[in-house]
Amino acid sequence: MSEHHLSIAITGAGGAGVISCGELLLQAWAREGGRGLLRKAYGPQIRGGESAALLKLTDSERYTAAGHYDVVVALDWDNFSRFEDEIGLKPESWVLCDEGQELPAAVAAAKPHLVHLPFAELAAACHPQGRINMLALGVLGRLLGLPTASMVELALQKLANKPEAYRDAATACIEHGAAREPACRLPVPALGAAGSWYLSGNQAAGLGALESGIRFVAAYPITPASDVLEWMAGGLEQVGGQLLQAEDELAAINMTIGAAFGGVPAFTATSGPGLALMTESIGLAIASETPVTIFNVMRGGPSTGIPTKSEQSDLNIALYGLHGDAPHLVLAPLDIADCVFTTGWAVQLAQRLQTPAIVLSDQFIGQSTAIVSEPRRCEPFPPEPAVEAEATDAGGGEYLRYRLTDDGVSGVAYPGDRNRRFTADGLEHSEKGTPSARQSDHQAQLAKRQNKLTDFNYGDDWAAVSGEGQVGLVSFGSSSAAVAEAAERLAQQGVSTRVVSLRLLAPLQSAALAAALEGCSLAVVIEQNHSRQLFHYLRGQMDFQQPLHSYAMAGPVPLAPENIAQAVVEVMES
Amino acid sequence: MMQAIPLKARDFKSDVKPIWCPGCGHFSVLNAITKAMAALGIDKDDTVLVSGIGCSSRLPAYVDSYGFHGVHGRGLAIAQGLKVARPDLTVLALGGDGDGFSIGGNHFIHACRRNVNMTYIAMDNEVYGMTKGQASPTTPMDWDHSKLTPHGPGVRPFKPAALALASGAPWIGRGYSGNPNQIAKLIAEAVEFPGFSFLHVMSQCITFCPEQTDWKAVVSEMDGPPLADADAAAKQFLHEDGFQTGLLYREERPTWPPVGETAVDETALASLAASFSV
Amino acid sequence: MNKQMALFLAHSAELETEAQERYEELAESMREHRNIPVADFFRRMVDEAGRHLEEVAELAADMTLPDLKAWEFDWPDAEAPETTSYEALHYRMSLRQAMQLALDNERAARAYYSDYADNCEDVETAEVARSFAAEESSHVAELERLMAEQPADHPHLWEEDDDPHMPE
User: Fold this and answer.
1) pLDDT tens string B179-198
2) Domain extents for chain C?
3) Are B39 and C93 an interchain contact pair (Cβ–Cβ within 8 Å)?
4) Architecture of domain C3-149 in CATH?
5) Which of A177, B18, B170, B182 could disulfide-link to A135, CB 3.0 to 4.6 Å?
């Protein structure tokens, strides 16, 4: 039952178009029912720099970064060293490249099979405007057995706005590449069921947000979150909502608070530096009990860090970054498809519990594109409870915006509602909302804001749990795929595990987590950061019945399942 | 059906009592807001007052409408988000000179530029009152009453009207706390103006700047209609003493977001989802 | 209908309403700042203005007064004559100082009514204005009497030992 996959890296520079080549290849593969992942790696240049399309075609939907590549198509070796860490080669790997160029040392050292293909010469021979990426697409398509017509059709769709000659050239190059004898023959992963989707995690998050009712977005651009916002700009236009481009993240979060206060579900997306700027006002959303969803696509930090690479190092700021006692929701989608569910869930939880939700995605799942089965959706919650009847009559009971209730959730009124006027406040306040520095009000409101989160029944979606072994593997968010693959490797070595992938980080479902690990003799907390943020959080929140160990590895290279498996074995042997 | 009795200014006051010092100019702005609301016949339930932090930002709680008392400097951002999401509401943002011109300066610039249809009232007393009287961006260079800047801030105060004009504000007015009726008139005009209206109110601080009681002697009213020419307005705002009151500048230009037909397609969500289907 | 009278009574009603509401606010503000004697004094002035407002209302009972906006009234100064400027206050002001403000108000009201009477072409309205001026005169006299009973103010009345507070 071991997974079979085929990994292909396409590298190039100077506008060669390797990303387009990768996208078209994956799309054509999707049409055949295949499953696969496309990661994109870029140099620091905005245009013309080196880039790499990193594909992993699989027979499952558990998408991890490839540990090494079966095929590397190097349209260009310039600055290949930037990708050396990510594009590992083995002697069984195949490298397709032009003859004239010298191999980078790391490539030569791996001693892969070399196939020389004069890409530029062949492309020029096909058409005066022939392009090497389209030639490579044809070559790779042939390798996978993809229909040439399908690749041509997809390419022409993509190039719909380009001049005719340019489009003709693409067709000619794809056809020529596909007509050539395959450079190598490799086993291709089995195809999956039809009816698949092709999308990135950032797009999936945008869809989940809109489907759960988001109709207002405030946006300040930041890598790698901008594409969530861009996708939503188009989406909101269609479903009837507003997107406001803010002057900075301070404005963005406050604009969402304003819209949410007006009763319009509101959302913003950002990354670490932006999240840091937003934290003061996330506290305001907590104190004023205004629901907003902050979708944070994590990148390497601190400071500007590594904007184009993934890391799970914003967990601490998401959990603890706020001043005062500030309970709120923190969630993390487990993979690209799960971005739909988890974002939708976060939006609805925020609305129901009248508090901000921070969703921790990351560059890896955010900017990678995958072929997935139709994603699971978050079912709409039942309608919000109505404001107490006695409070709605003008002369009757007073409307108390922050009324103390059994479940801590107060009936909410929005501007325009008759006779429920109140002033929302970030100052501590009475039930009515009047500023108060009284001990009794502070204690009561702190408890209310905490209890409404801790007492809520989150059901079974707090984590994905699988396996019944005695070794617990606990992770959160996008690490879950690498951990699942590690678990499979361990199983092959006779180590049976129990994998717990946390989707709801705050409030931590401690009892459920303890129950999920019941009977485990040890547990390893796995995460992609340097300071073991999840490990320390879990240890601070609860007592474990088994020794807890840590495997933490910062980015920018994705977590490697084999390293995780090895670390677990070492823990067991220690 | 009973005929609705028009509300008086006092009907727009909440039962929360102001904490402002007796003698504070902000009472005057509160008075003016309630008078303007009464004159305009605005529905309390459809009005929202949004503020940041500072003495003046306490104002929303004193008015019987919906309100939002936010964090320091960000009232304008909350107000714009609210108005864009809920264009049916009347939205007023309020705050002081520190809140609006220092910590919230970026939002001020961009609110002027963006031209969302709302009103911003900056209550300028040239001082941070809630933190014991430090110099603000509008404090005179040589004002040496603060322990934080014992020799005066030593920095030229900036000119809110000039900044608003340069940032694109289409409606700029100025009031003085000694004349709440004029402020009321200006607020009524500001609210009715289709766009972002910036009302700068010189509002005295009796506690930290008692010398501001002298303002009474130097304020004047602008003669004639507001300027409509940005060149002339720029010249005036850069060189004036800052005590001329009235509607100073007015030009109409398109507001944001543009009013368009937002025919909501019920099937749009399904189509968006379907766009991902292979 | 006597238009002049209606216009005049509209002004009188506004004058007394403004006076009353302002005194009420000042009383509340002084109470909030724990200057109880002054708060109580302003509270008394609320009642005074209220009584005069009732008289005006009685006179206007059968008339339709013009519906003017706050800024459409014709006052000699920025605000209605009997309205205490918000800015004239201090939380440590003495009763005597508060009385002085009230006295200034009453004098201003008296001057307003008496000027109105002098310049009014309608005899009936002039007569009413003059009677209002007379009434304000009696308030002036009463306040002067009260003030005479007040001790002189301490020269450093507004000083205090503590620094201002920092509420936010």
Assistant:
1) 999 999 999 999 999 999 99
2) 3-149
3) no
4) Up-down Bundle (1.20)
5) A177
